[in-house]
C-alpha cells in the first residue's frame, strides 16, 4: 500500500536553518522571505544578507511629513519595485543627512548634534556633543545644515567609525573618542575618505590643490608627498579646441545654454588615483560630465575618456568595480542632484560616459513618496 506524503509546513522550519539560507541571498530576496509568514519574519529579524555589490538609492521623507518616518529604497536589480525601511522615528524625519558609508547614514539633528544610523537595522551610534549643540546654535544663525561638509566611515562588524566634518573649522572623532578634535586650516568644500590607505582627501575653494590627511595614528598628519595640481572648473574644457571658428560658435551657444555646474573630487578604490569631476546643466536639460586624472609627470589634470570597468558613486566620492555585475553599470556616474536639497527627479540618474546620455530611473521610484532628499549609497561597502 502506497504511503501517503506528509504535508510540509514551511512555517515550522528551524529558525536557524531559515537564517542560514537567507544570509546567502540578496537584500531583495531577504525582504521577500520576511513576507512569507510571521515565524519567518521573526527568524529573519536582524539577519544580514550576502555582501551587496551595487549602489542603492535612498529617498528621505519630507521634514513636515507626520504620516511616515520611513525612507524609500530603490535597488536597481529590481527595476519595477521600491522598498520601505522600518519606522525610523520622528527625530529622524527632522534630521538632515550629511554623508553615507555602506548601510550607514551620518545625520544632523535639529539640536546640531551628529549621530550615525543604519536605516536597514535601526542601529544607532551617538557621537560626542558638537560645539554648535553646546552653544545652542539654531538654523537661523550664520550656518545651515546644507552648508556642512562631512564624510563617514564605519566597519560593519566592529562598529569602529571615523567622522570628519567642518563646522566653521574641520573636526573629527572616532570610536573611543569622547570629544571632537580639530585638524587642518578649514575652508573645505568636500571630503573623501579612502579607508584602505586611511587617507582623507579634501578639496578647498576653487583653484586650491587637493590636500591629503593620514588618519593612521591617533592624530591626523598632513601628507606632503601627495602633490596635486589646483582643482578648478574651466567651462571651456567642454568645447572643441581644434577649430577656432567652431570654438567661438560653441562658446556663444554654451554661455547661452548654461544653467549651473559643480566641481568634485573622487578616489578610485581600484587604482587609488584621485579624480576631478565637473558637470554642467544646460537650459535644454542636457547634462555634460568630464572626468580627469592627474598626469604623473606634468602634474596637470587631463581628461579621461573612460572609467573602464569602474562606476563612480559621486555622493560618496569613490569608484567601485562594476564589471559583469547585474544592477550596476560600468563606465557610468551615479548622480543625485546639484545641491543638498536634492529632490528634483530630473536630477537623479545614471550618466553613461560611453554614450554621454543619462539613464533616468523608473517612474515608480518617484511616484511612491514625496521626498526631501536623495542619495546613492552602498550597503555592504568594504573598501
UniProtKB/TrEMBL annotation:
Organism placement in taxonomy: Eukaryota, Viridiplantae, Streptophyta, Embryophyta, Tracheophyta
Span of domain F-box: 13-53
Pfam families: Beta-prop_KIB1-4 (PF03478), F-box (PF00646)
Protein name, per record: F-box domain-containing protein
Entry-linked PANTHER family: F-BOX DOMAIN-CONTAINING PROTEIN, OS07G0183000 PROTEIN-RELATED
Domain of life the protein comes from: Eukaryota
Species this protein is from: Brassica carinata
Amino acid at each position: 500500500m502506497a504511503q501517503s506524503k506528509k504535508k510540509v509546513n514551511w512555517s515550522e522550519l528551524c529558525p536557524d536553518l531559515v537564517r542560514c539560507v537567507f544570509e546567502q541571498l540578496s537584500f531583495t530576496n531577504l525582504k521577500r522571505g520576511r513576507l512569507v509568514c510571521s515565524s519567518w519574519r521573526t527568524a529573519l529579524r536582524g539577519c544580514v544578507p550576502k555582501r551587496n555589490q551595487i549602489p542603492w538609492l535612498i529617498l528621505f521623507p519630507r521634514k513636515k511629513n507626520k504620516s511616515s518616518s520611513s525612507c524609500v529604497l530603490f535597488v536597481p536589480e529590481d527595476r519595477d519595485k521600491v522598498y520601505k525601511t522600518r519606522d525610523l522615528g520622528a527625530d529622524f524625519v527632522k534630521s538632515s543627512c550629511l554623508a553615507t558609508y555602506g548601510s550607514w547614514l551620518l545625520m544632523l539633528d535639529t539640536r546640531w548634534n551628529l549621530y550615525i544610523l543604519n536605516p536597514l537595522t535601526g542601529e544607532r551610534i551617538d557621537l560626542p556633543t558638537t560645539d554648535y549643540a553646546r552653544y545652542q546654535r539654531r538654523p537661523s544663525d550664520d550656518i545651515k545644515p546644507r552648508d556642512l561638509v562631512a564624510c563617514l566611515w564605519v566597519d560593519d562588524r566592529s562598529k569602529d567609525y571615523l567622522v570628519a566634518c567642518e563646522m566653521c573649522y574641520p573636526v573629527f572623532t572616532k570610536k573611543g573618542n569622547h570629544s571632537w578634535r580639530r585638524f587642518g586650516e578649514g575652508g573645505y568644500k568636500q571630503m573623501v575618505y579612502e579607508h584602505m590607505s586611511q587617507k582623507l582627501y579634501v578639496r578647498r575653494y576653487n583653484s586650491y590643490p587637493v590636500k591629503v590627511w593620514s588618519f593612521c595614528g591617533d592624530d591626523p598628519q598632513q601628507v606632503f608627498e601627495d602633490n596635486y595640481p589646483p582643482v578648478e572648473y574651466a567651462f571651456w574644457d567642454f568645447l572643441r579646441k581644434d577649430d577656432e571658428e567652431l570654438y567661438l560658435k560653441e562658446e556663444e551657444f554654451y554661455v547661452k545654454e548654461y544653467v549651473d555646474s559643480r566641481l568634485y573630487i573622487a578616489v578610485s578604490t581600484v587604482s587609488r588615483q584621485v579624480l576631478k569631476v565637473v558637470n554642467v546643466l544646460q537650459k535644454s536639460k542636457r547634462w555634460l560630465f568630464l572626468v580627469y586624472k592627474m598626469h604623473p609627470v606634468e602634474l596637470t589634470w587631463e581628461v579621461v575618456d573612460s572609467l573602464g570597468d569602474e562606476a563612480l558613486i559621486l555622493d560618496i566620492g569613490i569608484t567601485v568595480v562594476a564589471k559583469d555585475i547585474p544592477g550596476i553599470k560600468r563606465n557610468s556616474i551615479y548622480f543625485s542632484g546639484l545641491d543638498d536639497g536634492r529632490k528634483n527627479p530630473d536630477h537623479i540618474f545614471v550618466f553613461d560616459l560611453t554614450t554621454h546620455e543619462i539613464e533616468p530611473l523608473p517612474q515608480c521610484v518617484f511616484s511612491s513618496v514625496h521626498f526631501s532628499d536623495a542619495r546613492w549609497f552602498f550597503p555592504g561597502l568594504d573598501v
